Fold this protein.
Amino acid sequence: MGPSTAYVAAFGSGTVLVLLLAHRLLQRIVSPKSSLRAELLGENRAFALREVGDVLAVFLVGAAVTRNCVHGEDLAADLAWSAAFGLLGLALLELAGVFGLRVLMKRRLTGALVRGNVAAGTAAAAHYVAMGLLTSRAMAGADLRGLVLSLAFFALAVLSHQMMVTVFRFLTTYDDTEQIEGENLAAALSYGGASIATAVVVARALEGDFVDWSSSLVGFATIAAIALGLIPVRQVLVQGVLLGGRPTVRGGDLDEAVGRDRNIGVAALEATTYLGAALALALLA
């Protein structure tokens, strides 16, 4: 018999609360002059947007840790493993967030955020949500073996996500980094949709019980590769069917609308279509 709903709810609430407090403490250590209150209530919307994505990611990790670590048989064990997996997940989330954004913005993100660049804040928020999805699925198990497997598959998931997002960025004739640094919110929405959608599919590849390394890696690669199916979604479905343009292998009307015209509506449609297709692919995989 599993744990009661009240028991799980109490653990889930406590886990998320502890992770949010740890998140704030980590922020104060890394950036002593900044504070969550100042970022959210201040005039700089870029910092606020980044923080919103980070907080949502923390909730995803907390929920996953509760689901995997709380069994209701031993209170001490539930507390210990929830703490271990929760703090590991938080650390991995923050590291992956910083790493991915440095790849995207080539170490120029901090300056863009300080200037109040909303596009940079939007891209950062989307990236943290994507990393939250991957972290939450990687945190599986309630023992030392589970910790090791979580680390291994998390690293594999982040690498796969980064490679696939790079492929998406290659499809655009404009430079995502330059556009986002230039406060192009449309480019940030496009990037954010692609990043989160890719994470949805890669996170699906992390699900399932570990049998052995060979079969698990093959299973992960098979499902993760489905994310490449999002490529025709961009060039054929969005650009061709929805916008009525001519489908192209690279570039086209969609790039002009996002990169040149900074059309937020088109970018939002593109991002939404990515997410819809990713959710469908993950459901059917």
